[in-house]
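Researcher: Re-running this chain for the archive, since the previous output was lost when a drive failed. Same request as before.
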Amino acid sequence: MSTKVTPLKVKLSLSTQNYDYRKYKILQLIDSQPFFVAQNLRKKLPSLLGISRQQFSNYCNVALDSTLEIPANKLLILATLFNVNPFDLVNIPSKPVSMNDFIPKSFTSAQEATKLTR
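Model: Regenerated structure tokens:
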């Protein structure tokens, strides 16, 4: 007799420290501040962003596989506040892209490709 084991789903909340399971590093940046500063940030950031406390909590706890996205203007405000690049707020590693990735493999060189586009 075998039993099926479902994978453990990590519950994300403001109190847990599971930063790797979140799409954005907002809580990690808040928690890296001194305690009283972090406490004030948690209280005042929602009003600074013009959102409710519940929406701010949702932004902080977006799971990696979720389709929820924080609007770009809110990310820019957070990046400016924490003095980081907006891309540093995203917890998903990005793959470096070069121009060669867009050139078809049939071209032998990039020069040959540019000759055809002129």
